[in-house]
Amino acid sequence: MCSVINIALNNNLILTVVIQANNSERKQLRQQLRKARQSLSTEQQQDASIKLLNNIVANNIVDNAQICAFYLANDGELNPKPLIEYCWSKGVKTSLPVIHPFAKGHLLFLQYSANSKMCSNQYGIDEPVCELPDIVPLTQHQLIFTPLVGFDLNGNRLGMGGGYYDRTLSSLKQQANISLIGLAHDCQQVDALPQENWDIPVNKIITPSRIINC
Ligand SMILES: Nc1ncnc2c1ncn2[C@@H]1O[C@H](COP(=O)(O)OP(=O)(O)OP(=O)(O)O)[C@@H](O)[C@H]1O
Ligand SMILES: [Mg+2]
């Protein structure tokens, strides 16, 4: 954060210092929190994933949705695959984000089922092959589950640093009928995340042990 010494500088410089302080704090937090989740064992990951499913089922989070957006776990992220399969078993449709082929830095959501043809994207993450009929407009979702690197109890999220979710979700600011839900391991909580004006907060955070309404 900004130190007292910076107050003596002119306005532009103070602003620069604040942004740099935020950036380096976010970078450091990202490294620590990614390390924490990467260090979870395969058993701990599987356990967390099943506890997440049980938590969501017990609280009827997905039952009234027609279509929910998910992600495929990468880098130690909390794995929503059992939850995706639960959705399929209940007739709730699911989608996955793919890197937008035209809008740089944005995501596009494609319908995802057990039969989806998959390919690997530039980050080595599996995503559905982009076919026009499979595109699900953002506004057709009732629930959008996002991965996150860190969160605080106010719903502020820290992602992997690409700004993909922030850019894509910025158009939803006024859509009260769509719920943004961050999924994370409990070890990804921090007291307060430094935020920037482009960051899009979530409405709820769900961990293997808790549901936090923000
Ligand atoms: N709506 C936006 N318009 C333009 N640039 C943006 C927008 N949102 C984020 N960015 C840019 O993206 C970069 C990364 O943003 P940030 O550090 O918040 O990513 P993140 O929240 O960790 O990633 P993600 O959103 O993919 O989870 C920033 O440099 C920021 O300038
Ligand atoms: Mg952000």
Secondary structure layout:
Layout: H1 11-38, H2 42-58, E1 67-69, H3 81-89, E2 93-99, E3 107-112, E4 118-120, E5 126-128, E6 143-147, E7 150-151, E8 157-158, H4 164-169, E9 179-183, E10 204-206, E11 211-213
Parallel strand pairs: 1-2, 1-6, 6-9, 9-10
Antiparallel strand pairs: 2-3, 4-5, 7-8, 10-11
The structure holds adenosine-5'-triphosphate and magnesium ion (MG).
Adenosine-5'-triphosphate (ATP) binds next to helix 4.
Can you put this structure into words, describing what you see?
- This is 5-formyltetrahydrofolate cyclo-ligase.
- InterPro entries: FTHF_cligase, FTHF_cligase-like_sf, NagB/RpiA_transferase-like.
- This protein is of the alpha/beta class.
- It has one domain: NagB/RpiA/CoA transferase-like (Rossmann fold, 3-Layer(aba) Sandwich).
- 28% of the residues lie in helices and 20% in strands.
- The protein has four helices and eleven strands; from the N terminus they run ααβαβββββββαβββ.
- The protein has helices at residues 11-38, 42-58, 81-89, 164-169, and strands at residues 67-69, 93-99, 107-112, 118-120, 126-128, 143-147, 150-151, 157-158, 179-183, 204-206, 211-213.
- The strands form three sheets. Strands 3-2-1-6-9-10-11 form a seven-stranded mixed β-sheet. It has a two-stranded antiparallel ribbon with strand order 4-5.
- α2 packs parallel to α3.
- The radius of gyration is 18 Å and the shape is globular.
- It starts with 10 loop residues before the first helix and ends with a strand.
- Mean pLDDT is 91; it is low at 1-5.
- The structure holds adenosine-5'-triphosphate and magnesium ion (MG).
- Adenosine-5'-triphosphate is lined by residues 158-167, 170, 196, 198-199.
